[in-house]
Structures are given as structure tokens and as C-alpha cells.
From TrEMBL:
GO molecular function, one term: hydrolase activity
Entry protein name: alpha-L-rhamnosidase
Claim: Hydrolase is one of the keywords in the record: yes
Leading EC class: hydrolase
Catalytic reactions on record: Hydrolysis of terminal non-reducing alpha-L-rhamnose residues in alpha-L-rhamnosides
This enzyme's EC code(s): 3.2.1.40
Keywords from the named record: Hydrolase
Length: 918
């Protein structure tokens, strides 16, 4: 009886919805399929989903040889084996991920029930248990609802630089007859919404829906609300918060900040009865609303204020008297295309108990959660009606014990709760989030206790799919800090920081960082959605902004920041075998790279750059950016090297998409750039590029521009520069994206390890040693000007996390999606052990090794339907044993060759225990 995991992949992105358990009466089998979209598998945004599954087996070298998929329109037909929508019959294929649905055309609202069975070289599985998905509203004509809202503020609101706009409460009563078979709600709530049916909250998502450029697209969510409705009177209630729709600083810098308008909503409830009739309830001007409710203001930068004395019990239930409420107004649509949300919702993903609460002064306390995080504080309080509890947030403290808020700029980051009095009350904000470790509490009645508070960690509901641990405590702490920094900055889009008055989706922060993140979290859907945001921000001439969605009007026309568009598309393909984003965005990517060539390339050198190697460690601790020219890298060199590298990716994409003319074109560009680059920047007598910074030498070497005969000499210059910095990092955002893997690829993983495990400035370990629990924005974030020293950024991680998994753990893919693995850990003399795992689309890969003076032990897991080349440190093949037996006697292991002190072995799926005794 073996447990197996099956995943259902939907839409153009890598949609990893989750798994549940089942058992099969064989050594191989399939896990029950499950689709999780918001709170249910309803309303996917495509009529052509892709299906995937995973196999488990305790038999080594298990490979799929065929599959059969059944898709039915009812559970009964599926149970009877009738694939009336699609019976693939037996398909001779090893494909188990991204299998295209090829059945009857699916329209809006189509319900689909499916199962799969698999033939392998070691036997056939039973049918999986049924899984289901349904199609959402695919066509504009499907929407009968009308946009409702109110395009003005009220007396208690303030539309200004520091806006104070209250939440809007909407309600609608309606009657249903008996025999409700199915009820489905579709909602767009801008900027954020909460949805209730007959007083019951619908779904466990928070900060819904995800941010977009609302003039380009808006996301709708779908809910099965059958169990929430009844015969007779029913009530829908919604609350609309501001989110990114009603901008945080309207009328402040109109040339910089994009505005959208006041909150608005589109809602459609479709009810199907057992007698076959249907009823549709829509948002229109028959609804009622008020803005004079308990949420008095909600602003992502400034906080939320809630007055419990303004509550109206029962407002979202039948029978409430709303005669004093206003009539809902019909308003203009936001302009963007209405699309199903296919990335995971934001949820409360974790909770943190505070570690201390200390009195600062009379009626003022400082709460310490022990971890810098993003989310909010949930409080429990009992007091008199009208008492106000004020919560103010910060990442660090001053020497006096007061909050340090200088780095928050003009963000007020303050929540206020007004008690209704009487019994114990609990509260947390719902339409804002904060980045914080410390909370200043004032006005709390009585003495606050630790048990009265809880930190609720809020981020996109992405499964954690990677684990990494070593025998080095500093590196483990750095990984912990990276983990918390990454999740803190997932907010429906990748933001740069969660605390100050910025929180923007800067492209440059995630260029290679997205690759490292993909080993930790299943971020395929998340980044597929972001690529759409980037595409929608592209101007007609091809220009791409530095921030997307383009909430800030920054179109500075660099190569490095917008180039993230291409790098992320490549990441999704390599990590998740998802080619769809490349197909979808190829034309836009090509339009951008052509735009940059035509406008800014002269004699095959790109002449435009704004940011350079952003945030290299400066020469003085109080500086944000280095002023010493010997530390900074020529921006045109960086831009041109990136154009070369990105052209190589476009050449690969063109070949994948069968565009030979484009592939040849990009190949020619690479040749031209390479010659011009070396002519301009390379000193052949010294093998140095430009002013010999690590970044200046590393980019052409790693990207393949450097002439072969000079590669080792260029690399020696890189090593020499790092040695000059006492084996510390000297690169900024750009160079660090390639540094750790570059050093390892050219034979110095030991030097990369020194950089990674350093504890003195500048280093990631220095941050940890100074009490950091996330990653700083600056290497000298504890001493630099507070205008730019966020304590929760991830842009300086570069390729560190990817290097941890790919080179220290030795988990790489030789093709897209880890079907063929390369497991080749870099052995570091001072590193005793590594224990890492990664959930690929095929299953879990594990690399757990110990390395001592007496030998090397390595536990390896390769998932079914994949294989691996493993590189075992050994002098010869005879030294290597597996499970206590010489590898020559193990039939599932095929010796390949000896290479650079490694025994290279070919293995299929299964668990292996390799050992070499010295």
C-alpha cells in the first residue's frame, strides 16, 4: 500500500493546486487528484487546461510508458468509466506533466470530473480517485452584473496626500425557491473585498483580489456557495477596501503615481435548481451601501482604523433594516479585461507568538515578535466603550527602546481599534498589511500580556517545496532569513519591501532571485501572473518599466531591470517545464529587445543604463551608494553584457517556437556584440575588463563573451579582486546574481562558501550577526542613511539560494522540469553535512550527505518517471558502494565514467545510499 501524490496543472502557467492522500493496492500507483483554487476548484480561466500527475513507487527505476485520462461531465459518468468529454484511450507516452486537454470543447461554467491511470515498466496503476475542475466565465457576454460603487468621499474621509478613505459596505436581499442544486458566486472587488452569504464569510483568502493595472486587467474569484444559501430570504454582503485601486497617495505626484479611482465591485450569483431552472442575482443599483461603518480608514502605507462602536450587527444577514443606507450607484468599469485569478490567493499562512512585552512609558508598551514579518497583529482586549488601542509598527528599535521609524519614510503604519466595551474583544485589520517585528501599543486598558497578541503572517498561499540545512549554523541562519524575506514580499506580486511607503514590484529585485525562490516555494503561478503584469505595462513603442504593474511611472529604459521579463520566463520553463509563458510573451519580449537595440545600441554597444551594479558595498558605512569609481562598474558594460545574454535566451526561445529566422537573427546579434564588447572593454594583455571590478569581469565570463583562451586568466582576476576584499563580497545587485554559481562553475566553490559563510561586513552573515531575521536592502543597512535601509528586502540575495540548492545540495536539471537530474554537490572541506530536498513536478528529490575525513555518505532520492546522473566523490568506481554492495553488482546503477575525482553514475528513480570510505 503506497502513498502517491498527484497534481492537477491548469492554465498557461504552472498551476500547482495541491494534493491529497490515497492508497493503491500495488507497489506503484497514483494519488487522488485535487485542484485548489481559492477555497474550491471552480472557475478556472481557460477552456484548455493541462493535466499532470505524480507516481510513487518503492520499485527502483519506475518509468511511465503510457497513460489514459478520462474526463466526464458528471461524477456518475466518470464512475461508470464514461469519458463523455474526453477519453484519451491508452497513449504511449512518458509525459506526466503539462498534458494538454484534448477533449470536447469546453465553454463557460463547464464542470469536469477526471481521473487517470498509468502504465509503467513495472506495472499498471489503478485509476486515481476522481478530481474536478470547472470553467469560469470566459466571455464578456457571460457577465450580466453591473459595476457599482461611489465615486466620492464622505464627510469623515479625506482625499489628500495622506488619504483617509473608509471602507464601503454593500448588501442585497433576495429570495430563492426550494430545490437549490448549485450556486456559484463570481466577484471582482476593487481594491480588496470581503464576501459574505447569509452572514457567513466566503473563503479563507485575505487581501483579495491581487493587484494589477486595473485599466488593463482585473481578476475575478469564483466560489461554490451552494451550502451557504437557503430557500426563502437570503443576503449577500460585501466590504470593499482600498488596496492598490484607491491609491495610497492620490493627487500627490500625478506624474509619478498612477491613479484608478474609488472602490467598486462586480458580483454575479448564479443559482441552478433541481428542476433545471436558473436564477441570476447581480450587482446593480438595487443594492444598498454605507461608508459610515466600523472601518474608518484603510491605507496600505498608513494602517487601518476600526471603530467597533460603529458596528451594525446582522448587516450581512437577512432581516437587517437598511432603510438609512444609500442606494448603490452604477459606475464606470475600470477598463481592464475581466480574467479569472489563476495565481494562488493571499492567506494567513502562519502565526507567531510574541517573545516579550515591555513597558516603555506610562501606558506605552513595546511588543517583540522575535521575527521580522509581514502581516498584522491580532489583539485580544477588554475595556470600556470608546477606549482606543493604537498599534504602531516597526522593524527595529532605537537605543532608547522606542520604535525606529526613520526608514519608513512617511508611511504612518498605525492601526487604531476603538472598543465597543463589555465582553472580551478580538480584532485585526483586514485591508492592510505591515512589515514589522516590533509593535508600540498605547491606550491598552490594563497590562498587556503576551497571550493577548498574535502575529499573523500573510502572503500568497504558495506551498513550501524546498528544504535546506547544513552543518553550518551561520548558513542555516542566512537561509532562515532568506525564507522569511521571500515570503514577506509575496503580495499578489513581488514587492521590494513590506514596510515603508514603497512596496513596489521592482523588476530588478527578482531577476535571478526568482530562480532561487522557486526552490523554496511553488511560485510558478505567481510569476506567470507577474509576466502578464509586465506585458500589460509595456508601451506601444516596446518600452518596459522598472516597476510592473506600473504604479510608478518609471520607464528609464535599462537592460537589467526590464530584462527580468525574459529571465523569469526562462526560469518558469527550466524549473517547471512550462513553455506557455514563453509562447505567450515571446512577441512582447522581442518587441522590447528590438526597441532597446534600435534606440540605444550604437556600434553594438548599449549606451543606456541608469542603475549600474546597484548597491555595491560602499567605501564608507554611512553611504548608500559607493562614490569611489574603482568600486563601480561601467553601466554600458553591464547593459551590453545583458543584451548579449538575453539575446541568447531569445535565440533559445525562437528555436523552441520554430522561428528559425529569429533564432539566426539573435545569433548574429550575439556575434556582433561579442566582438564589439571585447574590443571596447577587454585588455588582452592583463585579461581584465574595464576597471577590473568583479562584476566587470564576471558578466562576460559567465555569459560566454570572454575568448576561450583568456577565460582562466579573467577568472584569476576575479579571484584576486575577491581576495583583495578579504574574501568578502564586492558586487551589487547585478554582479551578485551570477557570483556564487560563477565561482563554482570555474572551480572555486570554496571561495563562494567563504563569501556565503562570512560573519563580518559586508556579508549576509554580518546581517544575521547584527540581529537580522530577514535580508537587508543594503550591506550596511545598520549604518547607512535611513532613507534607504529596509530591513526586509531580498534583492541582495542574488543567486545565493539557487547556489545552495544547485551546487551545495547538488540538485540541478539537465533539461526542463527535472526529468533528467544532475546531482553533483560541491564538496567543501569545512562543510560536514547537507540535507536538502526539493519537490519537482515529478516528485521529491533529496540530497542528504555527510563528508568527513574518513569518507562520504550520500542518501539520494530520485522520483519516479525521472532519472539522474550522480557524481560521487571517489578515486575510482570500485571505491563506491550502494546499500553496502559494490555498484558493479547493483543492476539499477550504470557506471558512466570517472571525471575530475567523481564517479559518474546513471540511476533511475528510487532511494539510494552511496558510500565511499577513505
Amino acid at each position: 500500500m503506497k502513498r502517491i501524490f498527484t497534481y492537477l496543472i491548469l492554465l498557461a502557467g504552472f498551476i500547482l493546486y495541491g494534493s491529497i492522500n490515497c492508497y493503491a493496492d500495488a507497489h506503484i500507483g497514483l494519488q487522488n487528484l485535487k485542484c485548489e483554487m481559492l477555497s474550491n476548484p471552480s472557475g478556472i480561466g481557460t477552456a484548455k487546461p493541462r493535466l499532470s500527475w505524480q507516481i510513487t513507487s518503492d520499485i527502483r527505476n519506475t518509468n511511465q510508458v503510457a497513460y489514459q485520462i478520462l474526463v466526464a461531465s458528471t461524477p456518475e459518468k466518470l464512475t461508470a468509466g464514461q469519458g463523455d468529454l474526453w477519453d484519451s484511450h491508452k497513449v504511449n507516452s512518458a509525459e506526466s506533466i503539462m498534458v494538454n486537454y484534448a477533449g470536447k470543447p469546453l465553454g463557460s461554467r463547464a464542470a469536469c470530473y477526471w481521473k487517470v491511470r498509468v502504465w509503467t515498466n513495472n506495472g499498471v496503476t489503478t485509476w486515481s480517485k476522481p478530481a474536478t475542475w470547472s470553467v469560469g466565465l470566459l466571455n464578456p457576454a457571460d457577465w450580466k452584473a453591473k459595476w457599482i460603487g461611489c465615486d466620492r468621499g464622505f464627510a469623515w474621509d479625506s482625499v489628500s496626500k495622506f488619504s483617509r478613505l473608509s471602507a464601503r459596505y454593500y448588501r442585497h436581499q433576495f429570495d430563492l425557491k426550494s430545490g437549490i442544486k448549485k450556486a456559484t458566486a463570481y466577484i471582482v472587488g476593487l481594491g480588496h473585498y470581503e464576501l459574505y452569504m447569509n452572514g457567513q464569510p466566503i473563503g479563507d483568502q485575505v487581501l483579495a483580489e491581487p493587484p494589477t493595472d486595473y485599466t488593463q486587467s482585473v481578476k475575478y474569484n469564483t466560489f461554490d456557495v451552494t451550502a451557504n444559501l437557503k430557500q426563502g430570504g437570503n443576503t449577500i454582503g460585501t466590504v470593499l477596501g482600498n488596496g492598490r485601486y484607491f491609491t495610497m497617495r492620490p493627487k500627490y505626484k500625478p506624474k509619478k503615481i498612477k491613479e484608478f479611482g474609488f472602490p467598486k465591485m462586480l458580483l454575479q450569483l448564479e443559482v441552478e435548481y433541481t428542476d433545471g431552472t436558473k436564477q441570476t442575482i447581480i450587482s446593480d443599483n438595487n443594492w444598498h451601501f454605507t461608508a459610515d461603518g466600523p472601518i474608518r480608514t484603510n491605507n496600505e502605507y498608513d494602517g487601518e482604523e476600526y471603530d467597533a462602536t460603529k458596528e451594525f450587527p446582522g448587516w450581512n444577514n437577512a432581516g437587517f433594516n437598511d432603510n438609512k443606507w444609500l442606494k448603490a450607484e452604477l459606475v464606470e468599469a475600470p477598463g481592464g479585461k475581466i480574467e479569472a485569478q489563476m495565481n494562488e490567493p493571499i492567506k494567513v499562512m502562519d502565526t507567531i507568538k510574541p517573545i516579550s512585552v515591555k513597558q516603555l512609558k506610562d501606558n506605552v508598551w513595546i511588543l517583540d515578535l522575535g521575527q521580522n514579518m509581514a502581516g498584522w497583529l491580532r489583539l485580544r482586549v477588554k475595556g470600556n466603550r470608546g477606549n482606543k488601542v493604537t498599534l504602531r509598527y516597526a522593524e527595529t528599535l532605537q537605543a532608547s527602546g522606542e520604535l525606529y521609524v526613520a526608514n519608513l519614510r512617511d508611511a504612518k503604519v498605525t492601526d487604531v481599534y476603538t472598543l465597543k466595551g463589555g465582553a472580551e474583544e478580538t480584532w485585526h485589520p483586514v485591508f492592510v498589511y505591515h512589515g514589522f517585528r516590533y509593535v508600540e501599543i498605547s491606550g491598552y486598558p490594563g497590562k498587556p500580556e503576551l497571550g493577548d497578541f498574535e502575529g499573523q503572517v500573510v502572503y500568497d498561499a504558495l506551498p513550501t517545496i524546498g528544504r535546506f540545512e547544513t552543518s553550518n549554523d551561520i548558513v542555516n541562519k542566512i537561509y532562515h532569513n532568506a525564507y522569511w524575506g521571500i515570503l514577506s514580499n509575496y503580495k499578489g506580486m513581488p514587492v521590494d519591501c513590506p514596510q515603508r511607503n514603497e512596496r513596489m514590484p521592482w523588476l530588478g529585485d527578482r531577476a535571478v532571485g526568482s530562480l532561487g525562490e522557486s526552490f523554496v516555494f511553488a511560485n510558478g503561478n505567481f510569476y506567470a501572473k507577474w509576466l502578464d503584469d509586465i506585458a500589460q505595462s509595456q508601451k506601444a513603442d516596446g518600452s518596459i518599466p522598472d516597476v510592473a504593474p506600473a504604479y510608478w511611472n518609471y520607464y528609464s529604459n535599462n537592460m537589467t531591470w526590464p530584462g527580468t521579463y525574459i529571465l523569469v520566463a526562462d526560469m518558469l520553463y527550466r524549473q517547471f517545464a512550462d513553455q506557455a509563458p514563453i509562447e505567450k510573451h515571446y512577441a512582447s519580449m522581442k518587441k522590447w529587445i528590438d526597441y532597446m537595440r534600435v534606440k540605444y545600441m550604437k556600434n553594438n554597444i548599449v549606451t543606456k543604463d541608469k542603475y549600474g551594479d546597484w548597491c555595491v558595498p560602499p567605501e564608507s558605512p554611512e553611504l548608500i551608494h559607493a562614490k569611489d569609481s574603482s568600486l563601480n562598474t561601467d553601466g554600458q558594460l553591464i547593459a551590453t553584457a545583458y543584451y548579449y545574454h538575453l539575446s541568447g535566451l531569445m535565440q533559445k526561445f525562437a528555436t523552441m517556437l520554430h522561428k528559425p529566422a529569429d533564432a539566426q537573427f539573435f545569433g548574429t546579434i550575439k556575434q556582433n556584440i561579442s566582438k564589439a564588447f571585447n574590443d571596447k572593454y577587454f585588455d588582452r594583455t592583463t585579461s581584465k575588463y574595464s576597471n577590473n571590478t568583479v562584476t566587470a569581469n564576471l558578466l562576460p565570463l559567465y555569459f560566454g563573451i570572454t575568448p576561450t583562451a583568456h577565460k582562466q586568466a579573467v577568472f584569476k582576476n576575479i579571484v584576486a579582486k575577491i581576495n583583495e576584499a578579504h574574501d568578502h563580497i564586492s558586487t551589487g545587485v547585478i554582479g551578485t546574481q551570477w557570483l556564487m554559481r560563477g565561482l563554482t562553475e570555474f572551480g572555486r566553490p570554496d571561495l563562494a562558501w567563504k563569501i556565503a559563510s562570512n560573519t563580518t561586513y559586508p556579508s549576509w552573515g554580518y546581517m544575521a550577526g547584527r540581529g537580522a531575521t530577514t535580508i537587508w536592502e543594503l550591506w550596511n543597512g545598520d549604518t547607512a542613511n535611513p532613507a534607504m535601509n529596509s530591513r526586509n528586502h531580498i534583492m541582495l540575495l542574488g543567486d545565493l539560494i539557487a547556489w545552495f540548492y544547485q551546487d551545495i545540495a547538488g540538485i540541478k536539471t539537465s533539461n526542463a522540469g527535472f526529468k533528467q537530474l544532475i546531482m553533483q554537490p560541491a564538496i567543501i572541506n569545512v562543510l560536514d553535512s547537507v540535507n536538502a530536498s526539493y519537490q519537482t513536478a515529478y516528485g521529491t528529490v533529496r540530497s542528504n550527505y555527510t563528508s568527513t575525513k574518513s569518507g562520504f555518505k550520500w542518501h539520494v532520492i530520485v522520483p519516479p518517471n525521472s532519472s539522474a546522473l550522480v557524481y560521487v566523490p571517489a578515486k575510482n568506481m570500485d571505491e563506491v558502494t550502494e546499500g553496502g554492495a559494490k555498484i558493479s553488482t547493483v543492476k539499477e546503477i550504470k557506471p558512466v565514467k570517472m571525471q575530475n575525482g567523481r564517479a559518474v553514475l546513471s540511476i533511475g528513480s528510487g532511494n539510494y545510499d552511496f558510500e565511499v570510505k577513505y
